[in-house]
Amino acid sequence: MSPSISESETGRKSKLKEFLDEDICEDILLESELLLLSFATGIQDAAAWPDYMCFASNQTGNTLFLAIGVAGLTHDAYSFPNIGVSLSLFVAGGLVMGQLGNYFGVRRRLWLLISNLIQTALVFCALIIQYSWPIKRDGSAAMAVIACLAFSSGAQVAMSRSLKVTEITTAMATAAFIDVVIDPSLANIRNRLRNRRVLFLVMLTAGCFVGAFAQREAEKLRLQNWGLAVGLEELDLSDEHNHLLDDTKTNAAVKDLLLAIEAVCRGEEKVYANQAAGKEKQSSKDHLLPRHGPRDSKREKLRWAFGAKAKRVAQIEKFTSLVQNLHDLVPINNIRPGKSRSSIFDRRNDLKYESYNCDEIRRDIHIWLLHASTSPSELYEILVERRIEGTCDWVLDRPWFLGWTSSTFPDEKAKILWVNGSAGFGKSIICAWITHELLSKLKPLGYFFISSDFESRRDPFIAIRSWLSQLLRNPTVFALVHEAWANNFEQKAT
């Protein structure tokens, strides 16, 4: 090798070393990179929440949900183990990478390159884990995904804060909103700091919506692929369907989950219809996965999107949960030929709602209907327990009771049984025992007990809500109430 070539290579290496050892400057390229990271953060959190019930970057939300959960106010509405992992790994990522940055130089180009490579590698690790194991809300695989994303997010925020571009945090929007509105130069045409904050908020919000809509479309595709894999074509079973669908209980559970998904999709259309005034909503009655509402102007679509943000996130979350329940109930890798072709919905009146997969949804609806942790039905259970063995049975043999419960009772007469007596004579216990007897013979049946010390005695509608909560095991009632809940979950049931 000639001396000139050797000197040339040495010179290139020296220039590369100098380039990597330099501190980066604050310019439009750095701003653009931080804005792209903000966009990616929005996508990541919007996609992580429906799958794992926690955020990877938004630790303000995680801290709030953790406190609410510890106080027992959410009834398992969030995944507290995942939130704990996310919060702790986010702090760990910021601590480790932040201190390493202080040691090597927070603006040093080589360190920033290494930091970004580590963050990217962690995101790809989360991707590999997520697609190597079935998506579960809890468990070691879920925690591993959250750990990778949260550590990467902590490192990302530590890096962006160390660069001193405080207007683009890449994750936290609360301060940016306030900083924009209190800016004394807000109305100035040339205001670089304001422009940074506004662009950051736009990119973060855009990422959230892109992630949410992508998650929804992915779940729809996942649902369609599941139907093809298990042999479910247009709500009919093919000749080579999954043998698990021949089981009555499994069949009933699948049917109810599909009804719930249809209700969520109908609610999705109503969000658009309520926001886009004067536009006719496209009917989804005959479609499992409805199309979007009519095409509108970009301004109206943007107004609709921002106005329905919370409802959209909850709908996507429920949609994701329901699709996962279908995969858990009838795995696509468990396919054996079943019986001959038959329709799931042909047996609607004969199937009972007995699937544990819908217990969580039903529990959420119970809470929404009753507004409180104490159900009026608990008073009935207390009264039944107070009954002394052998008492109250005499009521069941009386002619007036037998006539009242008879199927030949005249339809034109009011079917009311009035139990009258002085205070303390046991009327409430007799009524509770009559209810106990009727529950063993009549399905469906709703009841409501109230006492003078009951906190909601001034609300007559709680009786109707209580009856609905008791009838949720009926598929038709469940579908109707679930649709109302999906569209009005932010408000108390009335």
Automatic annotation (TrEMBL):
InterPro entries: DUF1275, HeLo_dom, HeLo_sf, NPHP3-like_N. The chain crosses the membrane at residues 78-98, 110-133, 139-159, 198-214. This is Uncharacterized protein. PANTHER family: DUF1275 DOMAIN-CONTAINING PROTEIN (PTHR37488). Residues 275-299 are annotated as: Disordered. It comes from the Eukaryota. Residues 218-332 form the Prion-inhibition and propagation HeLo domain. Residues 278-299 have a biased composition (Basic and acidic residues). Residues 390-489 form the Nephrocystin 3-like N-terminal domain. The lineage of its organism: Eukaryota, Fungi, Dikarya, Ascomycota, Pezizomycotina. The keyword Transmembrane applies.
